[in-house]
Amino acid sequence: MAGIYIHIPFCSSKCAYCDFYSVPAFEYKADYIKAIKKEVELRAPEFKKAIGAEPVTTIYFGGGTPSALSPKELQDIYIALSEFFDLSQVAEITTEANPDDLTDAYIKELTTLGKLHVNRMSIGTQTFNNQMLKTFRRRHNAESALQAVKRVKEHGITNLSLDLIYAYPDETEDMLHDDIEKLTSLSPTHISAYQLTYEPNTMLTRLVKQGEIKPLAENDCVALYFHLVKHLEQAGFAQYEISNFSLPGYESKHNSSYWNMTPYLGLGPSAHSFYSDDRMHNPTSLTKYIKVLLDGINPAEAEGLTKQEMYNDFVITALRTRRGLDTTELKTRFGSTFHDYFIKQTETRVPRRLIENEGNGIVRLTQEGILVSDSVFTELIWV
Ligand code: SF4
């Protein structure tokens, strides 16, 4: 199995919490699409060599805002991919979208394209609290998000992932509950729920520094987390990764490939790739990305992962999942030295209540461990 990710870097404005790479530079759209096509041409041979007989099974348009491109433009990128890859075994094609872009005309065009068949959509609903949507500088309100999701379903895309941000300033359990009820009433198959974080250089962090908003206390965040997990599970959503919940059989195939170290090719500015036991990243600048590609140069820079870094990636990504880390697989991939180090660290450095060991070689975080996952990872990685 292998995946392809395409980063669409355009956003018409910046959300207050966001530190993803995105720019309002729509005048570069045509050059961007030319550059993406060139990147496919330049990098396909190397990626195909790396995956060998493994088929491409997932395609993911992420951003930024993929719905900032017209359906036809998304299809143009898909056609470029199909010229270099056998896409006959692709089972999941996801596009992210913002509610404000999902007009009837847009969805109609997207669902009636001749070649690109999007069968999963991830919609940035975030919260149904209008005051917080304003603070977040989102471009939609609660009602328009509800209507957008309904429209998408009416046009036949029913495999839907909805985003939720929780633990925002002053949020109570009742407020979170209201968001959960509204989300689940839309019958999504998947929910990505992220605790609000205050990243450097975001408007949200500036608002905190200026004293205009106050982050929720740690204890309240913990209470909301447990409320979230309990109520999503009651609604039938299993937590299969720290921030991801799905109905049975609806785990994101594409994102699962990040967590089980399946190779993927990342195209577009700031996109990351993983194959041939290495990570690669593209320039985090739209204009630089376009220039390099229009000069015919491969923009991806290899990171040259060491075995220790590979081990660290493996440990962190596996422990983020409910499936957990398989110590037999760890030994096969990295040998006895890394395996024994992991076992010793789990036994001597991590309190028992934070990880569970089923006795069959599978180690996973407990709910308490998930809450302090970063400090658990610090004990288990190789430094
Ligand atoms: S739409 Fe998404 S990528 Fe764009 S600024 Fe908002 S959160 Fe960031």
Structure notes:
The protein has 383 residues and is an alpha/beta fold. The protein has two domains: 2-259, pyruvate-formate lyase- activating enzyme (Alpha-Beta Horseshoe), CATH 3.80.30; 307-380, Orthogonal Bundle (Arc Repressor Mutant, subunit A), CATH 1.10.10.920. The protein contains 15 helices and 15 strands. The protein has helices at 29-51, 71-84, 104-111, 130-135, 142-154, 173-185, 203-209, 218-234, 253-259, 286-294, 307-319, 327-334, 336-348, 367-371, 373-380; strands at 2-8, 56-63, 92-97, 120-126, 160-166, 190-195, 238-241, 244-246, 264-267, 272-275, 278-281, 301-302, 325-326, 355-357, 362-365. It has a nine-stranded mixed sheet, sandwiched between helices. Strands 10-11-12 form a three-stranded antiparallel sheet. The chain has a three-stranded antiparallel sheet with strand order 13-15-14. β7 (238-241) and β8 (244-246) form a beta hairpin. The longest helix has 23 residues, at 29-51. The radius of gyration is 21 Å and the shape is globular. The structure holds iron/sulfur cluster. Iron/sulfur cluster binds next to loops.
